[in-house]
Amino acid sequence: MKPNTFLKFRSIVLCLLVALLLSIQGCIEDDLSVCGVSITLVYTKNMDRIDKLESDVKQVNLFVFDTKGLFVDQFASKGASLYEGYTMTLPLPPGEYDFVAWGNLSEDYEVTSFVKGKTTKAEAMLSLRRGEDDVVNNRIGSLFHGTKRMIVKPDLQKNQRDTIDLIKNTKNIIVTVKGLALEPDATPEDCGYACTITSRNGDYRFDNSIIATKQLHYIPQAQVDESKSLVADFMILRELETNITRSKLTITKNKPLSKAGSGEVEELRTLNLVELLVPIAIKDGYTLDTEDIFKIEIVFDFTNGTSNIYINGWEVSNSGEILTSV
After folding, report:
1. Potential cystine with 69: which of 43, 120, 244, 247 (Cβ 3.0-4.6 Å)?
2. Which of 246, 238, 234, 172 is nearest to 210 (CA)?
3. Which pLDDT value is given to residue 29?
4. How far is CA 185 from the centre of its chain?
5. Three-class SS string for 276-320?
6. What are phi and psi of 266, to 5 degrees?
7. Quick check: 109 and 127 in contact, CB under 8 A?
8. Which alpha helices (H) appear in the chain, and where do they start and end?
C-alpha cells in the first residue's frame, strides 16, 4: 500500500472510531432517547376495528417497572404531543421493563402514590372515586388500559420500537323502561320509578384485573322521554365474562307512603348484567372488552305480569339467552 493511500485509509478509520465513540458517549451520558425505546400507542380494539386513538384518547400516562416489579418512572403525553406519530420516546437504559398505560386519567380516578425503586407493580392500584356509601352520582370519564413487556437492548441499535394496543375500560349502558304509564310531565325524580346498576368494578390492579371487594351503586343520567318511558343513561367501568363483579341491573318502584310516614321500594326486575351482555357482544361479533355501547329495552306488561328484554336489537331471556332479532 502506498504511503499516501495508507494515510488516507488510517484517517478514515480514525474518523469512524471517533464517530463510534461519540455515539456511545451520547447514548450512555446525554441522549438516552436515541438508545432507549419508542412506544407507539394505538386503540384498535373497538367496534369499528380501526385505530381511534386520536379521536378517543386525549392523554396517556405510561408507568414503567423493572424485572423486580419496582417502579422506575412515569411518562405522560397529551394533546398534540401524543399524536406526533402516536409515539412516546422513553430515555431508558438497557434492561427488561413492564410498561403500563392508562389513558384519559382524570379527576374521576386516583392512582397509587409512587416512589422510584420502592413502589411495586403488585401494590399499584387505580380506583374510581365515589361518594358516601360507594355511590357514583357523576357521569365518569372514559378510561383506557394497555400493557407490554419489552427488552431495551444494550447495543447501539436505534429506533427500538413496540406497540401498546389499548382497550376501553368504560361502557355506556342505556336502559329504556317502557310500559310504566308515566305522566307526560313526569320527571325522573317524581315519576316513582328508578333504575340502578350495582357492580364490584371500581378498583384495579395495574394488570387491569379487578379487585372485586366494594360494591358501587351507579346512578344514571335519567329522563322521561316523549313516549313516556324512563331512560337511564349509565357510564360504568369494565365488566368481565367471569362475572367477578356480580353486576346487577335493577328497576324499582316507590310505593305510597305508609301511615307511619315511610315509603317502601318494590323491585320490579333485577337482572344479572354480565349474563345479559356477554351473549350480545358475541352475537354482534365482538368481545365484552371491545363492545362498549349497549342499548337495553325493558317492556313491562303489568296486566299480564310480564316483561320482555331487548338488547341492541336482540330479544333475550332473563338468563341472557338470545331468543330472536327484532
Report:
1. 120
2. 238
3. 41
4. 37
5. HHHHHHHHCCCCCCCCCEEEEEEEEECCCCEEEEEECCEEECCCC
6. -105, 130
7. yes
8. 3-25, 32-35, 53-56, 273-283
pLDDT at 159: 66
Amino acid 54 reads E
Cβ proximity of 221 and 139 under 8 Å:
yes
* The predicted structure's pLDDT at residue 35: 58
Nearest CA to 75 out of 66, 86, 63, 83 is that of 63
Its pTM stands at 0.85
Tell me how far CA of residue 117 lies from CA of 70, 73, 214, 279, in angstroms.
5, 9, 30, 44
Q: State the Rg of the chain over Cα.
A: 27
Would you put residue 312 in left (φ > 0), alpha (ψ -120 to 50) or beta? left
Whether the predicted pLDDT of 282 surpasses 90:
yes
Instruction: Return the residue matching grid coordinates 354482534.
Output: 284
Buried-exposed string 184-213: b where 16+ CB fall within 10 A, e elsewhere? eebebeebbbbbbbbbbbbbbebebebebe
